[in-house]
Amino acid sequence: MVTRTVDLRSDTVTKPTEAMRAAMATAEVDDDVLGYDPTVFRLETEMAKIMGKEAALFVPSGTMGNLISVLTHCDVRGSEVILGDNCHIFIYENGGISTIGGVHPRTVKNNSDGTMDLDLIEAAIRDPRGEIVYPTTRLICLENTHANSGGKCLSAEYTDQVGELAKKHDLKLHIDGARIFNSSVALGVPVDRLVRAADSVSVCLSKGIGAPIGSIIVGSKSFIAKARRLRKTLGGGMRQVGVIAAAALVALQENVGKLESDHKKARLLADGLNEMKGLRVDPVETNIVYVEIEEGLHISAGKIVKNLEERGILVMDVSPSRIRIVLHHQISASDVQYALSCFQHAVKGGQSENGN
């Protein structure tokens, strides 16, 4: 019988804290579609200030935030966006930019650190002289941190270079900053500096900083005005949504400062896993840990995940030989040690079953 659960599937699994629940219960609310919810207004104003942009818009999810941003920039069907072949928008958002927006994705190879080579980005930009046959390039998208690369951080300098490239070709730059606060903490660089070159940024409030629901889009006032209309079109307009925004305000106040601890615990877990024979862990920069199972171990990721679940450790297998683990503020140092002991049992148990 499982007596302890340690949920490491994602940083989206956190539960609202008592402070969040109290704020939600007493939140001042009004109709946000009409633009009158005071708590949402506070959240949007605060996020615009933090991100160094003119305005902000609260949306239900990160996927909707990215979709609205891409569609706002690419407001002519048949537009093209350049983005990484291993990025969240391209892989995990249901192809929404194409199916809903008629926007064509043109992928560039993501490097292991989440970047794309500048020369490859520039080579992917369509020659306007070929507009009779080509889509029209209008946008470049980056992701910071880059989740599929193991939560790698994109530097301000790299982002500036991409921004300069975009301006050179009269393009816009959008950053999927679902975990931008993690990047800011890990790099020791203010978040507004990291996104200075961007025309728009989406920020997830329900990942690292632990709010129960929602994301924020930031950009210029004119960009946000267009984005607000698209939010309504996509069914994202919410009414007395201050009850949710109140929890996000608490998350901003209380949990950004806890991200450094999350990163330390991720490194502690990674170091322990690296000591286990047959496991190899990618370098850890933030709160995401990828574990590679070497062939000589003769056990699949799925089997290890099942063995761990029997002991109350929840993780995700992303391939037959790869496991993803994500730390968050509701994971303690004790939880990390317990997870390591369970991994040891799971690996040994799997080896025994296979006769090794």
Automatic annotation (TrEMBL):
InterPro entries: ArAA_b-elim_lyase/Thr_aldolase, Low_specificity_L-TA-like, PyrdxlP-dep_Trfase, PyrdxlP-dep_Trfase_major, PyrdxlP-dep_Trfase_small
Pathway per the UniProt entry: Amino-acid degradation; L-threonine degradation via aldolase pathway; acetaldehyde and glycine from L-threonine: step 1/1
Cofactor: pyridoxal 5'-phosphate
Reaction catalyzed: L-threonine = acetaldehyde + glycine; L-allo-threonine = acetaldehyde + glycine
Biological process terms in GO annotation: glycine biosynthetic process; L-threonine catabolic process
Domain of life: Eukaryota
Pfam families linked: Beta_elim_lyase (PF01212)
Entry GO MF terms: L-allo-threonine aldolase activity
Functional note: Threonine aldolase involved in threonine degradation to glycine. May play a role in the removal of L-allo-threonine.
Similarity remark: Belongs to the threonine aldolase family.
Record protein name field: low-specificity L-threonine aldolase
Taxonomic path: Eukaryota, Viridiplantae, Streptophyta, Embryophyta, Tracheophyta
